Amino acid sequence: MRFIRYLTAATLLGATFGCKDVLEVENRNNPDRQRVLRNAADVEGLAGSQFQQIISGTLGSTARVQTGMMTASFENASGLANNGLGPRSGIQRQPIDNGRGNAYQTENFNDFRILSSVARNSADILARAKDPSFTLGANRAGDENRLKAWTHFLYGVSVGYLSLVYDQAGIPRPTDTPTTIPELEAYQAVNAYALAQLDSALAYAALPGTTALPAGWLTGPGGPTVSVARFNQVIRSFRARMRAGVARNPAERGAVNWEQVSADATAGIQEDLLVRMDPAQNWDYTWLATTLHFRDANWHQMTYYIIGMADVSGGFENWLSQPRDARTPFLIITPDLRFPQGATRAAQNADRGGQGAPTGRKYFRNRDPGGDQAAVGWANSQYDHYRFRAFADAGRIGDFPFFTRAENDMLGAEGHIRRGNISAAAALIDRTRTTAGLPALAGAVTTGTQPVPGGAQCVPRIPVGPNFTSTACGNIFEAMKWEKRMETAYTTYGAWFFDSRGWGDLPIGTPVHWPVPNQELDARALPIYNLGGVGQTGRRAEHVRLRNRRPLARSHAAIGDRVARREKPRARHALARGPGTLLRASVAVVLLVLPQLAGCYRYVPVNSPATPVGADISVGITDRGRVALSTGMGPGVRRISGRVLASTDTALVLSVASVQYLETNVPARWTGERVVIARDYVGDVGERRLSRSRSAIVAGLLLVAAIAASLIAIEGFGSDGGSDRPGAASQVSSKQKLRYSASQSTIRICGIL
């Protein structure tokens, strides 16, 4: 009987490894890391392309978490299911579903993947650039300093955004091997690493002779060069953004090093950081398209939850007193010139001076009544954010404020308020406040608790507890929040979300961050978990480090994630639990093997360009194709597998099943999305065909395993065939044993049995 046991184990092991999905095509167009970074000019070129990837990974598509962050923080109001707009804003708030195949797993995965790719590239560039043998050429020491400063900046921004969005992330490091999968670390540790990279960027930028950033690296295609002094300001502003934005709740926000934030903001940008967008060159803010943000009120309108605080007529108070889902739109009467002026809707419709121009002061419009769309009560309003309409009409081509001076100023102002320097904060807030027609704070507000000036005409007017159906003039902190929201709306990634969670302004149950995408958890063999939702704990499982098996440091987010500890394995082995237990274990192993049975297919080269429609193929992507496909499919596409929908001399049209990227050996699963691949982008094509020889081998192996399992079930193991409970007798009859006959255990394998 011992022989039968060994035979069973051997056959199952053979079934697992004997039928792999082997790709029998060598693709010479896929460069490895050493080949890409061998040439110094290529290293510099790769570095120069990475800020575009940060734009792509944050704003470059609606398939990003940006859409959900906007509605979750009331920056946008939409009930549409598209890209998580409605589901992320519903009240009561629901958990983020992170299960395999969930409706918004693409949005969640794309940000993580692209930002991680930038971090990976940055780590590799730094490892190469700091190698003693590396040089850009004679008399280019200043350019080498620039390369290192710039790459540390990219590294810090990409890792920093990961820390702002996700509860955990893996940090690719310069010392990693090409196959290393970075272990997950809590967002606080990820943020600390990002800040350290920005520190290094400042240090290299300060070295004598460091040269200016070339045109386009930071400022987009056709954008100007960036002086070292200006680059230093940009680094300082991003460091302030990352340091303050990582907080998940008011306690964490209060614990931020605000002295450092204020210092960075003071030394930060003194004018907007403008990025020259051009969708044709993959620099884009897709949401601001005329067919999305500006399409109709189904896609975008402003909820009164935030903008209602501009009203001085009592309309906001009346709105607050109504049942939440039965609230009706009202006219905002306000001295804030960023809103249309007039005592009637018709008058406000007509007040469009400067409306739609990025440099104009009219940020909102009261839309024509014919454009209203029915929505749940609290989401209904007459107002749209219209500041960037001219940018949308221009095809989203032109300078766009990715980091405004106002945001930088409000970071400094918040730091001053928290440290009691009210006069310094008032001076910063007044820069935009007085331009908008509101009375100055300087000289009128000297403490943190005084109401802002204006009396009954004050802005903002804040809901007052315990019922929150009345309002009162806000203090200087609320004035800072108001200015920051008004000036940053729709300008950058997570503009309202990161601040709102730190200020405690998100509705109860709103997830304060996104979970690590299920694709990444699967790649690390970690359990999938959800986050957020009213009454939910997130069901976050304990994660274990892959390298040294020490438990990860768990984040202490406000949502109170509960740790589900794994049950310790029983000491006794399955062989000591009787034939029934071993039989079930054998069947379980067989079932685990079943997913491998698709491996009874192999890919064989296709030399003819006439790839048949309906064929399952795997396409190797050239370097040129990687660049062209990066916008829609992400950077570093190595292979695309799927079914052929159409085939011509110039292009292949695939229903995509999976995509393999350069940075990972684990293919990302797709769900049949239609992708057009130009023939110029194709390095090789392999067609998926049945391997009858391997299928027959596996069929035989598993048939032997099934027979062996049946014999074990009938004959037993010769000793201790009972339960693992002390004193328990075996309850398995011969008739029950015979139920597992070989004929009933036969499995149809690879379609040939």
Explain how this protein is built.
- The chain is an alpha+beta fold.
- Helix content is 37%, strand content 11%.
- It has 25 helices and 14 strands.
- The strands form 5 sheets. It has a 6-stranded antiparallel beta sheet with strand order 9-14-10-11-12-13. Strands 1-2 form a two-stranded antiparallel sheet.
- Strand 12 and strand 13 (668-678) form a beta hairpin.
- Helix 3 (40-48) packs antiparallel against helix 6 and helix 16 packs antiparallel against helix 18 (476-488).
- The radius of gyration is 30 Å and the shape is globular.
- The model is unreliable at 15-30, 538-585, 587-599 and 712-753 (pLDDT under 50).
Shape: globular
Estimate the mean pLDDT confidence.
Answer: 82
N-to-C terminal Cα separation, in Å? 28 Å
The profile of the biggest β sheet is: 6 strands, antiparallel
